Amino acid sequence: MKQFLLVFIGGGFGSALRFLIGKYMNSTETGIPWGTFTANILGSLIIGIILGLAAKNDALSSNQTLLLATGFCGGFTTFSTFAYENHVFLKSGDFTSFALYTIGSFIIAFLAVFAGLFIAKSF
User: Fold this and answer.
1) CB atoms within 10 A of CB 27
2) 45, 46, 59, 65: which could join 53 in a potential S-S bond, CB 3.0 to 4.6 Å?
3) Residues 81, 72: Cα–Cα separation, whole Å
4) The whole model's pTM is what?
C-alpha cells in the first residue's frame, strides 16, 4: 500500500506540473505542442538522472525511485498526448510538423535519458 501511495503522490505532482507547462507553452496560434515536447524531454532527462542515481551505489532507495521515476516522471511525461498531437498533425495534412515533432521527440528524448545518466555518473 505504501508503494502505491508513493506512485500516486508522485504521479499527481508530475501531472499537475505537466498541466501547467502545457497551459503556458502549448501554442494555439501555431498548433505546435511545445508544452508536451518540453515535458517529455525534461521527463526523459529527469528519469535518466533518477535511475542513474538509483543504480549508482544505491544512492536512492526503491521507495524514492518509485516516487520519483514511476510516479513523478510517469505523471509528468505523456505518450498518449504525444500520440494524439501527432494524430492532429496527420489529420490536418501537416506532414512536416508530424515528421519533425515525432522524430525530434524520439531522438532528443533518448539523448536526454543518456545525458541524465551521464549527469548522475558525475555526482
Assistant:
1) 10
2) 59
3) 17
4) 0.93
Decide: residue 81, CB within 10 A, 0-12 exposed, 13-18 middle, 19+ buried. middle
Query: Please, which residues have CB within 8 angstroms of residue 102's CB and are 6 or more apart in sequence?
Result: 86
Q: What is the DSSP letter of 26?
A: -
Distance CA 68, CA 66 (A): 6
Per-residue confidence (pLDDT) for residue 29, from 0 to 100: 81
Convert the pLDDT of each residue in 39-98 to its tens digit. Answer: 999 999 999 999 999 998 888 999 999 999 999 999 999 999 999 999 999 999 999 999
Residue 27 has pLDDT above 90, yes or no: no
Nearest-CA neighbor of 31 among 79, 77, 83, 98? Answer: 98
Tell me the domain boundaries of the chain. Answer: 2-122
- Cell 510516479 appears where? 71
